[in-house]
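Bug #77: duplicate submission created two jobs. Keeping one. Sequence:
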Amino acid sequence: LDVVLGGIDLFWETQRIPIRRIVIHPKYNSSSFKNDIALMELSVPANTTNPLIRPICLPVTPELRPVDFANLKVTVFVPMRVNYVNETECRAKYAKVAQNVFLDEKQFCAQTLEEDSKYCTALTSGVPLNQVQTFGVHERYFLRGFDLYMQSCNATVPSIYIDVNEYLDWILYNMKYCGADDEGSNGASLEADWGSLQQQQGNEKLTLFNMTDCGLAEPFDQTSNRYPNMPWIGWLHTHPGVTVADLKDDSLAVLINRRYALAAAAIMQNKSQWRFITLGSLGNYFACRNDRCERYTQEMDVRGITVHPSFTKHPRQHDIALIEFWQSPDPKNRYIRPICLPFTESMRHGAPLALIVSTINLFFTENRQLQQLTVASCQQQFAQNGRTVKREDISLCAALADVERQSRVSIVPGAPLQAMLQFGGHKRHFLRGLNYAPNRTVSAYENLNVYLPYLFTDIHPYLDWMLDSMSVKPRQNLLGGSGNLLAPLEEHYLGTAQDLRLPIRNAAKRRLFNFKNCGTDVPHSLSSSEHGGVNVTHQWFGGTSSDFPYGECVVTLISEWYLLGSASCLKNYSKPIILRMQAHDPSQSFPIQRIILHPQYQRGDLDNNIALVQLAKPVNSNRTHFKPVCLPITGQLRTSSYNTSHLVTVGTLSDTHRGKGFDSRTVGATVGDRWVDISYCQKRWKRMTGRRSSASCIYSLPLSDGEYYEQLDGAPIYSVESFNNIDRHFLRGIALTGVAFYDVPAPIYFLEIDSYLDWILDSMDETLHLRELSYSLNEKLVFS
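Kept job's structure:
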C-alpha cells in the first residue's frame, strides 16, 4: 500500500510513499465499528518543504484538548463548517430515515450546515474532522476525529466520527519506536564508516559511487505519477525503442552507479540478446500524450555483460551478472537514480528499518515488505507447501512480513531486495539481494494463493567481485600510437578476423602507389594527460575547409594525387583541401581538380557512400611532411586476415583538465570492444534508412569527465600490418556518420572499403604522374 500526499487531482504536485507498517487498534470490532482506528508508519518521511504537504496538529497535551465541540470543520475538497449533534438528537435524526445507530463512548455526531452542503463533495470514510484553535498567535487545525459513516456532506442526517482525543495515548505509544535521535545517531555512524572506507588505500573504485543521491525514491514520487516506479529499475530488451512486447520477457536490471547495473546471471547468459536497457518511469512514458514524453525514460546501450565465472544453475549459485553501459544516464533526470550498495560492515550488519522487494509486471512496479528467514525456516515453509529446496540453493530467503493486507506477488528474476537504512539525513534503499527461482520457471509462482518464501542471491559476498570487474577509467588501454598499437588486448576485446580477400582486378595500377613510404608514422611524443595515451601524427590526415556549408569532413591521402572521403559530405565541395598532422600544427592547402562520386551512390544509402578527391597538383612527400596511407591491394595483404579489435580509429580529443580552455590533440584509438552490433547505429542514425551491407558500427572513444571527442564524416579506420619489414598503416574504412564535440560516446557507421578498391583504382588517372617529369618520354628514354 502507498499513501499519496499533497494534492487532490492529477494537476497538483503529489508525493507517493510506501507504507512501512500498519498498526490496527487491538480492540477494533468490524461489526460495531468500535475502536475503528489505525496508525500507518511511512517508509520515508513526507516532504514537508512542499507547501502542499503539511502535518495536522495533534492535541498531545491536556490543555490543547477542549471539552466542547466548537469550531469544527470537515475536510473535503475545501474545509466545511459542521455542528456538533448530541447523541439523543443524532439517533432521532437517523430514526426518521428508518436507521438505528449505536454510538460508542468514543464516538460522536456532527452535521454539515444545510447552506454549505450544496457545495460539499463527499469523500470516502476516514475524512478528517478538524477543530480550529488558537496556538500562539495563529489559528491552527487540530485533528478531532474521523468520519466513519461517509455522511460528511449530508445535511439530512449527521455523520458519526471517532473521537481522536480518546486515543492519543495509544497513538503516542505506537509512535515511540520511530525515535529520530536513535536513527540519526545510527545514520551518523554509517556515514563515518563510509568516509573512513573511502580514505583507505586501494579503494579508488569507490569514487564510482555517489552516496549523496543513491537509494532515494521520494524525489521520483513527488509528481502526479500514475505509474510510480523505483528509479533504479531498468528493463532489458534486444532492439532499440522498447515496446510492450519487449516487457513480456520480464527481464529486469538494477542501476548501481552511472555506468553499471546488476542482473540475474540466469537471464544474461545469451549476451547478444540484451543490447539495451531502458531506465526511468516507463509507465508514464507509454501513457504520455504530449511532445515531452522523452523526459520520463532514457535508453542505455549495453557495452558489455560480465557473468560471474562460478555461476551454476544446479545448484543455483553465484546468480549475478554485471552490465556496463556505453553512456551514463542524465544526472538531471529526476526519474533515474542508482540504488545504494552496502560497502561498510555497519551497512551490511545493521538492522534495516524495512526489507522491501520491488518487481515488475509489464511497466507496473509492485512493492512488498518482507522479513528475512533462516535457512531452516525457509526450507520448512517450502516443505509445508509441497516444495523441496536444497540447502545449497538458498543464498538468502525472505517471506512476506506480518503487515496487514499484503497479497502475494509474482517476482521476476533479478528483482531487487532492498534494505532501508538511515544515511545522510534520509532513509535510503540499499541493495540486499537479487531474486531467483531455482529448478523452476517464474510461472511456478503464478499460484498466488500459495505463500512460498522468496529466494535471493545475497549481494554481500559479491561486492569485491563487482569492484574488481569495474574500471575507473572507461577508456582503459585504447589510446595508442605507432609504438603500442599492436599491444596485446584483453581476451574479451578480441574481435573476429575478416575473411580472406579476393585479388585486385586491375593489378597493373598498383604502380600508382609508392609502398616504400606510405603509411609510416613519424616519431610521436608521449602525452602528459592524466588519462594517459599518445599524441599521434597522421601524415595522411586532411579535411575540408571549415567554412564549408555542409559541415567539415575528413579526407585521407591515399596517393600523391588522390584523397578518399564520403560522398555525402564531398558531393558539393569545390574549395581547397587542408592537410594537417595535429590539431594545432600548421596546415597546408591543396586545390582540387574534381570530385569523383561512386556512380551508384544515392542519398540516404550507406553503401556506395564513397568519393575520390583528385588534386590539381600533387602532394610531394619529399618537399612536405605529408605522405599517403597505404591501401591493402598487394597480393600479400589480400591473402592475410586482420583482427577487427586491433583496428584504429582517428579523432580529436579535447581535455578541459589540462589547463585553461581546451587542449585538443589528434588521437588514434584501438577499436577493442567498440565494434558492436549494427542495431546500435540503426538506433542512433535513424535518417540512414538505405542499404548498409558494407557498413559496420563502432562506438566513438569512451570519455572521462571533462573530455570531448570529435570524429567527423570520412575519418579513417586502419590496421597496422608489417610490410617489407616495416609496420605500416593500411586504410580499411571511413566514417559515414561523424560526431562533433561529444562528451558522451556515440555509435558511428563505418564503410568498409575492401569491396570498393577496384572502383578506386579504375577511377584514378594513371597519366597524372607523367605531368611531373622534367622531360618528354617521346624524346628521351631512361633505363635504370
